[in-house]
Amino acid sequence: MITWLHLSDWHQHGNEFDRKVVRDALVRDIKTRVSINPNLANLDFFFFTGDLANFGIEAEYNAAQTEFLEPVRKATGVPIERGFIIPGNHDIDRGSFELLPAGLLEPLADDAAAQKWLTAGKMRDRLLSTFEAYDKFVAGYGAKGFVSFGGSCTIDVRGTNVGIVGCNSALMCGRNKQKEG
Q: Residue 181, class by beta-carbon neighbours within 10 Å (0-12 exposed, 13-18 middle, 19+ buried)?
């Protein structure tokens, strides 16, 4: 049996409410998970899939690591290298949109245009530049994580190969505003 903890939508920002209350309740539940089901005693993976930050800036990731990810991950007993993170729409630094080329601020005309932005090296780098703080965080955190473009890997879990794919569904999020705003 392969088991994991899957979380999302922490939205780390400031101290607008007491996040520790939420985190501490989650940590208590994780620590007592065996009372829910004995099969949860040993977790194999820890997944965080989107919106760790609220505005995609470096300070939010630093706070989220200390205030959320590490206390929760340690409660699971999952080693850091079995942790996986993928960004969401709040992991985009929308403040950097003004630096993007006009072609990324309008709807893409067709599949060929999308393919060009996703595959041409320099164009793809510009597309992903709004995830710069996210990528820096993932690179330094120690979890396998997935860079802003996503990725995949295979991990052996007690003789069973497990394929893991991280897909960033927020690559183009928020770039095209409707005329109504």
A: exposed
